[in-house]
């Protein structure tokens, strides 16, 4: 019969390792999103990105339906 405390210890270690990886991934994602937003505001101010057409005079309801 296996030693249950060792299995529990291994499970705790694996859970802590996985949580650490998820937190690092989330932190990196926030930094990357912030960098993209900053670049869009500073360097690519005059560039056109894909946006919705709602309320714009050049868009009509007929062109959106087809």
UniProtKB/TrEMBL annotation:
UniProt keyword list: Membrane, Transmembrane, Transmembrane helix
Transmembrane regions: 15-39
Keyword Transmembrane annotated: yes
Name under which the protein is recorded: Uncharacterized protein
Organism: Eubacterium plexicaudatum ASF492
Upper classification of the organism: Bacteria, Bacillati, Bacillota, Clostridia, Eubacteriales
């Amino acid at each position: 019969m296996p030693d249950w405390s060792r299995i529990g210890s291994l499970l705790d270690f694996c859970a802590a390792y996985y949580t650490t990886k998820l937190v690092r991934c989330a932190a990196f994602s926030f930094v990357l999103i912030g960098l993209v937003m900053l670049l869009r505001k500073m360097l690519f101010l005059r560039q056109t990105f894909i946006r919705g057409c709602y309320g714009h005079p050049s868009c009509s309801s007929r062109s959106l339906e087809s």
